[in-house]
Structures are given as C-alpha cells and as structure tokens.
Amino acid sequence: MPSASIRLLLVGAGHAHLEVLRRFVLERPDRLDVTVVSPEPRHFYSGMTPGYLGGQYTVEDLTSDVPAIAARAGAECVLGYAARIQPGERLVVMDDGRRLTYDLLSLNIGSLLVGADTDAARLAERLKPLHHAARLKQRLDTLALAPGDAPARVVVIGAGAAGVEVACAAAAVMDRAGRAREITLLERGERIPAGYGKRFQRRAARALDALGVRRRLGVAARCVREDSVELDDGTKVPSDLAVWLTGPVGAPLLAESGLPTDPRGFLWTDDTLRSIADPRVFAVGDCGTPASHPTLAKSGVYAVREAPILWGNLLAAARGDALAQFRPQADFLSILNTGDGRALLRYKGLVTWSRWAWWLKDRIDRRFMRRYQRLAP
Hints:
Layout: E1 6-11, H1 15-27, E2 32-38, E3 42-44, H2 49-53, H3 59-62, E4 63-65, H4 66-72, E5 76-79, E6 82-86, E7 91-94, E8 99-101, E9 104-107, E10 112-113, E11 125-126, H5 133-144, E12 152-157, H6 161-177, E13 181-187, H7 198-211, E14 213-217, E15 221-224, E16 228-231, E17 236-238, E18 241-244, E19 248-249, H8 252-256, E20 267-269, E21 281-283, E22 288-290, H9 300-319, E23 334-337, E24 343-347, E25 350-354, H10 355-373
Parallel strand pairs: 1-2, 1-9, 2-5, 9-21, 11-18, 12-13, 12-18, 13-14, 20-22
Antiparallel strand pairs: 3-4, 6-7, 7-8, 10-19, 15-16, 16-17, 23-24, 24-25
C-alpha cells in the first residue's frame, strides 16, 4: 500500500521559496503535496525595487508570477495573508478564515518596519510588504509632475541601505522630470548607512552630497503630518511625501504562534533553519534568526544563500533523513543603487561609487530574475 503524501506548506513567496518552487519544477520529488501562500500574485524582488522607483525598471523587470510558477511546480497557490499559526494543530489560518493544514511548514514572509503600524506613521508610505512599491512609485511620479515651481519635498525616515537607495531614487525621479526637489534622510544614528564600515559610510556621504540629498542624523521621527515630519526634538521637516523605512521587526503572527522569538519578534532557528522548538517549522530570510548567529543582518543575500539548504532539508525532513546546516558567510558583496547610473559597492577591501558598480548590480539582478521569470513566460 503506498505511503501517504506529506503536506508541505510554504507561507510567503520570498527569494528562498521561489527557489524551492523552481527546484520542484526541475525535480518533482514524490510524496510531497505543496501549497504556497502569497499575499499578492506578483512577487517584487527587493534588490531591484529602488531602480523601479527611480524609473530604471518596469514592474515586469522585477516581479515574478507566483501562481504561474506554482502551477509549473505542481503546487497549489493560495493568494492572501496568513493571520495565525497554530503549531499544535499544524494549522495556518488565513485572514479570511481559510484553514490550511500541514505536515511541514516553511516561513519566508520577510519583515515589517518598526513603528509602521502606529498612528505616527499613518500618513507615510512604506515599502514593506514590498508590493507597496507600486503605490510609492505612483506617488513619486505624481509629485514630480505636479504643477507649480515649488520644490518637491520628500523625507525618508530611516537611513539604512534601503533608505539611502529610496532617497536617491526619489532624487532621480524629480531630476528626470525637471522638478526642483528637497530630499531629506532622517536617521537616529550618527553615521549612515548603518551596518557598514566607516570607509564605506564616508564614501556614501560624499555620494549623497554630490546628489544633493540632505541628511538629519541623531534624530527620530515623532509623527508624520500632512505637510511635514515632526521630530522628537520638536522641530519639523517640511514634506510632501514621507517614506517610512525604519529597522526590521517580525510580523505579529510569529510571536503569536507561541514559538520562541528573538527580541525583535523573529523566530529563533537552529542551524538547519528549523524552529528551535518545533522541527516541523522552518523559517528563512528575514523572518528567522539563527540562534548561533543572533546578530546576522536582515539581508536578502542570506535568504538566497539559505534557499538550497532549505530545499535539501525539506526533502530530508520528509524522508526522515539527517538535515544539513546553514553556515552564513562572513562577508558579502553589497551594492547600493544611487539612481543616477552609478552605485556604491562594498566587497572586502574594495569601496567604490561608479558606473561599473551599477553595471555589475544590474547584470547580477537581471540574471537572478531570469531564473524565475522564464518559468512563467
């Protein structure tokens, strides 16, 4: 008598899960019934999103058709938001009440932004979840073409790598339209972008100066108003558009699952990418924090690196075999798009702001996207 199939539920259609679906297209392992949950039919690739905002890419360039890829993989695609995880019942409840059961669960839902759900941020645009990029692009384009001679005032709250790229993209949109502009980056810290060495930060500062992007450091946004951003020192920065890009925080359903989470609300995982409390639950990308590497950056590069380990471990877990361990690299290539045909690059001892760095980033990103787009031409 044939053994029963194992129900694999992939919640989120991020980098790692797209790769898992691609492997299913290529290999089609037996005894695995796969369902993928995605909030939107198209997945936005984070690495190209600033270029999309700045007009360098179309929506077709940086998105993948999740239902079509799922169909090629022989998987069911459920569109909507997962609202609750009930590990004891091996159940995920959708926001519309649908109930999805599983034998193995993998989470690849990314992260949210600190304070983005508060009244203070209600009037700000945001980039997470990433499908919000389409609305932000529309607002930038509308602002660039608005009548009048007054400068377009854009305030980006949070000056990590994404904040720097979005500020540069906003500058590029206004410049292309011939619109005067005041682009301001706000950051609690004293140096930007956070998480980079001083040499790169100095190069980034010179690039932002050359592009005319203003910076207010050592301050925090208290509240976004209709025409300004109020700071914690009581001063206001005039604004026609504010973009909320603070640090990452876990989606509430992770902590509410009852599984152990780190101080920011991400699931603690072991080196095999499984929850430290439930071997049936995997978490990859931003939504998981390896207990052996608690300070690992929330960067898409790690989701990409985790993908083949996740694929192998899902198959091993289904068979009852030993699982492989994920070992994050100590350093990685980082390239920030400055929206003007150049990019800031950091790799080991090399730091540059150049056109060849942009060429390299564009080549890497387009090649990455082709891997998934050709599954659903």
